[in-house]
Amino acid sequence: xxxxxxxxxxxDQARELWQKYQSHVHRQTSADAEIAVIYKRxxxxxxxxxxxxxxxxxxxxAEGLPKLAIAPAHLQECWFxxxxxxxxxGKRSPRTNERAAVVRMDWPGLTRPKDPTDRWRYExxxxxxxxxxxxxxxxxxxxxxxxxxxxxxKRYPVDPFLLRRFGGDAWLVVAAWDLxxxxxxxxxxxxxx
Length: 193
Hints:
Elements (H helix, E strand, L loop, with lengths): L3 E2 L5 H12 L7 H14 L4 E3 H8 L9 E5 L4 E7 L2 E5 L11 E5 L17 E4 L17 E5 L11 E7 L2 E7 L4 H12 L1
Helix pairs in contact: 1-2
């Protein structure tokens, strides 16, 4: 999967910039703190991506649905709800106090896909990939997101990323994996039951 990584600077440059931000901690705004954290992760050799920009850049499939999807890691399915120039990924009908159950994003030029079978359809569902037990966070799964190549059918996805959001469109890649045939077979059988 092709993603938009923040790779304009190397580890040494990121370390120098992080140290500059650390020397002015007492004057930092919340944006400065976010920038400093990103520089620190890049200096540590971690991958930081722009997940929402990756979704926009990858574009839409032949049916007019996004090729990539993002959802909170604790969900089993991701509902995509498009509107003019924006969309929502996440829980089907979140309550107003469940902001963590969705990811909202602006998408200039986006319109609702045409479904030949149902002209009133306004949402589509994709299966959220499981996180293998050895990569799964020990706690706080609701603080993570999964980015993957979406199958807007009952087929099980293949190669997801586990992400942790810094804020805005900066996301730390915590893990990346390919689901094995065994994992896909077991999870696919559970989709039909």
